[in-house]
Write a structure and sequence with these properties.
Order of helices and strands: HEEEEEEEEEEHE
Helix content: under 10%
Number of helices: 2
Strand order of the largest sheet: 4-3-6-5-10-9-11
Distance between the termini: 43 Å
Structural class: mainly beta
CATH architecture of the largest domain: Ribbon
Length: about 210
């Protein structure tokens, strides 16, 4: 009798509330199409993400995506190497299909007083003034072909979390973060291809 009551109770339990959200995963061209999707987890929000990268003051990448998101994934973050900067901005909402509009471009941010080393050519002793939510110093090493190159700068805490370090495995990238002014070392590194283009940190917040 108890077993029957348990089975009936489980069967008749109301289904946990989950949202329907738009999902939009950009392809290689950067374009994507909205499709409605039921979120797999209770408590997830609908989110829209925008990642914008700049080099030499010009916008070089502008990517939009949409999906279900955890509250912790609804953030604003950036990584700044001086020669290039990538900003991430998300908009989250809690009603069905509410993420119809793309997230706006992240706003301009002012220096926050923190200072890190950056690389200019082979010299990695230059000072970079961190901005906005950039509260960590970062040092990123990439292997391109047979060469190993390092770039340094400022990053938001989110960029440094293990689950969001999507650079690992891309061109042999290795990311090291630390807190404290100039904690990302002053050693010089070899210059190469990476220093001639806009280095992008591809951080996937919405999955």
């Amino acid at each position: 009798m108890h077993l029957l009551t348990l089975i009936l109770g489980i069967t008749l339990l109301p289904r946990a509330h989950t949202l329907n959200c738009y999902e939009c995963v950009p392809g290689t061209s950067g374009a994507c199409t909205d499709t409605a999707k039921e979120c797999p987890l209770s408590g997830q929000l609908c989110g829209a993400l925008r990642m914008t990268s700049y080099a030499g003051g010009s916008k070089v990448v502008d990517i939009n995506s949409k999906s279900c998101a955890l509250k912790a994934e609804c953030i604003e973050a950036s990584v700044n190497f001086g020669i290039s900067k990538t900003k991430i901005n998300t908009n989250c909402c809690n009603s069905n299909l509410c993420n119809v509009k793309p997230a706006p471009e992240a706003s301009e941010s002012a220096p926050n007083g923190k200072k890190c080393f950056q690389c200019k050519g082979q010299d990695c002793t230059a000072t970079l003034n961190c901005e906005g939510t950039e509260d960590h110093c970062i040092s990123t090493t990439m292997n391109i072909g047979s060469e190993s190159m390092t770039i340094k700068g400022c990053a938001s805490k989110l960029i440094c979390l293990p689950e969001t370090q999507q650079m690992s495995g891309i061109m042999g990238a290795k990311v090291n973060c630390c807190q404290g002014d100039y904690c990302n070392s002053a050693s010089s590194t070899s210059a190469g291809l990476l220093l001639l283009v806009a280095p992008l940190v591809s951080v996937v917040v919405l999955s």
